[in-house]
């Protein structure tokens, strides 16, 4: 049974997660340097670890054929929860800001502290949605994993109910003709090819003759 490589799908998730975490890092650093937003540790740790884990996962997915779905679900679920916590941290900072209660509604819209917290929390919410989507796909792969046997009585992975495509089915069919997509789908560390039992018996018979 032919199994499509899901590596491009997981690589796309990693690229988007790196982009969103980098945007959160940049916005947090800009607000800290320009508008004196408190440098809370959980903000720096969450956004920086999102970038580092994304890069490490993207590089690792290029070298191995099978993706560790349990690890993907654990990491994406954890990062999604941490990003959600950063949203509440920004809400806490706004609630305890001393100037907010003295500003009018029109003045609050131009208040740099408020703008920074809202924009950073918005980027974090996008990251939460992406991480939890990644986690749900990985969990589906974990709980619906089954194996069947082919004609040579060897175990192969069966089709799963969830169909993952690179952006869309038609787009994946279109880009599958390009070399970069084929390299992304292939594994660099290939396992040694093992001949089926029927071929091994045929070869041993030939040597005996």
Give a written overview of the molecule.
- Helix 1 runs antiparallel to helix 2, helix 1 runs antiparallel to helix 5 and helix 2 packs antiparallel against helix 3.
- A two-stranded antiparallel sheet has the order 1-2.
- It has one domain.
- Helix content is 67%, strand content 3%.
- By secondary structure, the protein is mainly alpha-helical.
- The C terminus is likely disordered.
- It is elongated.
- A hairpin with a 5-residue loop joins strand 1 and strand 2.
- The protein contains 8 helices and 2 strands, in the order H-H-H-H-H-E-E-H-H-H.
- InterPro entries: DUF7775.
Mean pLDDT: 77
Low-confidence stretches: 189-201, 203-209
State the strand order across the main sheet: 1-2
The dominant shape is: elongated
* H/I helix tally: 8
- The run of helices and strands is HHHHHEEHHH
* Main sheet makeup: 2 strands, antiparallel
Taken together, the total number of domains comes to 1
Evaluate the radius of gyration: 24 Å
- Helix/strand-derived category reads mainly alpha
- % residues in beta strands: under 5%
For the termini, the CA-CA separation is: 34 Å
> Could you state the oligomeric state of the chains shown?
single chain
Percent of residues in helical segments?
55-70%
Please provide the count of β strands: 2
């Amino acid at each position: 049974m032919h199994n499509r490589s899901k590596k491009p799908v997981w690589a796309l998730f990693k690229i988007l997660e790196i982009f969103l975490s980098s945007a959160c890092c940049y916005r947090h650093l800009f607000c800290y340097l320009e508008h004196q937003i408190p440098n809370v540790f959980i903000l720096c740790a969450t956004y920086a670890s999102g970038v580092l884990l994304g890069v490490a996962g993207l590089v690792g997915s290029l070298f191995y054929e099978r993706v560790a779905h349990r690890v993907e679900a654990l990491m994406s679920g954890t990062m999604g929860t941490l990003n959600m916590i950063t949203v509440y941290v920004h809400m806490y900072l706004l609630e305890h800001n001393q100037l907010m209660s003295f500003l009018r509604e029109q003045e609050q819209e131009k208040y740099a502290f408020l703008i920074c917290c809202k924009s950073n929390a918005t980027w974090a919410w996008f990251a939460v949605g992406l991480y939890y989507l990644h986690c749900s796909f990985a969990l589906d792969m974990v709980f619906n994993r089954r194996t069947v046997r082919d004609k040579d009585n060897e175990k192969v992975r069966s089709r799963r109910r969830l169909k993952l495509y690179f952006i869309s089915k038609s787009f994946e069919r279109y880009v599958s003709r390009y070399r970069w997509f084929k390299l992304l789908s292939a594994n660099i560390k290939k396992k040694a090819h093992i001949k089926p039992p029927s071929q091994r018996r045929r070869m041993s018979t030939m040597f005996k003759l």
